[in-house]
Design a protein that fits this description.
Number of strands: 2
Protein name: Cobalamin biosynthesis protein CobD
Shape: globular
Distance between the termini: 11 Å
Strand content: under 5%
Keywords: Cell membrane, Cobalamin biosynthesis, Membrane, Transmembrane, Transmembrane helix
Low-confidence stretches: none
Helix content: over 70%
Radius of gyration: 20 Å
Membrane topology: Multi-pass membrane protein
Order of helices and strands: HHHHHHHHHHEEH
Number of helices: 11
Largest sheet: 2 strands, antiparallel
Subcellular location: Cell membrane
Function: Converts cobyric acid to cobinamide by the addition of aminopropanol on the F carboxylic group.
Structural class: mainly alpha
C-alpha cells in the first residue's frame, strides 16, 4: 500500500496545484466545521467541558477517518487505479497550496498599489489578529507568517500523514487541525472545551513541522549570500521562541532564508500580544517578500514530496 499512497499523494499535489478547491464541489472541512459548531453550541457549557471536548474530537476523528476508510477501501477493491484516484482526490482536499498562495497574493496586490484598506480586508480573511490599523510592514509580516506557518499545517503535514495511512489518516489530521482552529484557544470560552483539540494538534504537528523547517532551508537558497549552516543555526535558535511548540519552525526558517525578522507586536481582540522575534533583521521588510514566501512554500512542498518518496521507498524495500 505504501507505493499506492505515494502515487496518490503526488497526484494530490498536482490536483491541488491545477485546480485547488473548486467552490462548486462540497469540501470535507466544511462538514467538519458544521459538526464542531453543532457540538460546541450544545456541549460547551456547565461542568466537565474538557471531557466533552475530548468526546467531540473522538467522534469527529472516528467519522472523518472511518467514512473515508470505507470509501477508499471500496474503491481499491474495485480496481487499484480507481483506488489511487479516489485517494488522491480526498488527499487533495486536505492540502491548500494553491489557496494559500492566492490568499497571499490577494493581500500583496493592493499592498503594492498602496491600498492599505483593501490589503487589511484580505489579510483579515487569513489571520486572527486585528488588522484595522496595521501599517504596510505589519501587513507584510502577518502575511508571511501565515504562509510560512501554514506551509506545514496546510500542506506538508497532511502529506506526511497521507504517506503513513493514506487519505483516511490525512483526513484525520485535517479534522484535528480544523478542531484546533475553531476551538483550540486559550480564552475563557474555549480553554477547557478546546483543550483536547489543541493538544492533539500539538501532537500531530510535532514531527511534520520540524521536517518542514529543515526541508525549507535545504530546498531554498538563502538571501544575502548566507550559508545554509547559518540558516540552520538561526532556525534552531528561534523556532522554540514561538508560543506554539510547532508554528515557529516554518516562520523561523522563512525569516532566516529571507534575511528578515518576524514576530513582534500583535493585537488580538483589542489585547496587545508581544511575540518573540525570529530571524535577524538584515534587510527592510517589503511587500515583495510576500512573493518570496510563496516561492519558499512551493519549493518546500516539492522537497517534502521528494523526501516522502525516499522514506516510502526505503520502507517498501525494507518490508
Amino acid at each position: 500500500m505504501i507505493l499506492y499512497h505515494l502515487m496518490a499523494l503526488t497526484l494530490a499535489v498536482i490536483i491541488d496545484r491545477l485546480i485547488g478547491d473548486p467552490k462548486w464541489l462540497p469540501h470535507p472541512v466544511v462538514g467538519m466545521g458544521k459538526i464542531i459548531s453543532f457540538f460546541e453550541k450544545r456541549l460547551n457549557k456547565g461542568s466537565h467541558c474538557r471531557i466533552k471536548g475530548f468526546m467531540m474530537m473522538l467522534f469527529l476523528l472516528t467519522i472523518s477517518g472511518g467514512v473515508l476508510f470505507i470509501i477508499v477501501y471500496t474503491a481499491y477493491s474495485i480496481h487499484i487505479m480507481l483506488g489511487i484516484m479516489v485517494e488522491a482526490w480526498f488527499i487533495s482536499t486536505t492540502i491548500a497550496a494553491k489557496g494559500l498562495k492566492q490568499a497571499a497574493l490577494d493581500v500583496w496586490q493592493p499592498l503594492v498599489n498602496k491600498d492599505l484598506n483593501e490589503a487589511r480586508k484580505y489579510l483579515s480573511y487569513i489571520v486572527g489578529r486585528d488588522t484595522t490599523n496595521l501599517k504596510e510592514e505589519e501587513i507584510t509580516r502577518a502575511t508571511i507568517e501565515t504562509v510560512s506557518e501554514n506551509t506545514s499545517d496546510g500542506i506538508t503535514a497532511p502529506l506526511f500523514y497521507a504517506l503513513l495511512g493514506g487519505a483516511p489518516l490525512a483526513m484525520i489530521y485535517r479534522a484535528v487541525n480544523t478542531g484546533d482552529s475553531m476551538v483550540g484557544y486559550k480564552n475563557e470560552r474555549y480553554s477547557e472545551f478546546g483543550y483536547a483539540a489543541a493538544k492533539l494538534d500539538d501532537l500531530f504537528n510535532l514531527i511534520p513541522s520540524r521536517m518542514t523547517g529543515l526541508i525549507m532551508i535545504m530546498f531554498n537558497r538563502p538571501a544575502l549570500k548566507r550559508s545554509r549552516t547559518e540558516c540552520f543555526n538561526v532556525l534552531l535558535r528561534d523556532a522554540k521562541k514561538h508560543p506554539s511548540p510547532n508554528s515557529g519552525w516554518g516562520e523561523a526558517a522563512a525569516a532566516t532564508l529571507m534575511g528578515i525578522q518576524l514576530g513582534g507586536r500583535n493585537v488580538y481582540g483589542g489585547q496587545v500580544s508581544e511575540r518573540a522575534r525570529m530571524g535577524d533583521s538584515l534587510i527592510k521588510l517589503l511587500p515583495e517578500h510576500i512573493l518570496a514566501a510563496n516561492r519558499l512554500m512551493i519549493r518546500t512542498v516539492f522537497g517534502f514530496t521528494i523526501l516522502l518518496w525516499m522514506i516510502g521507498g526505503m520502507w517498501y524495500v525494507l518490508t
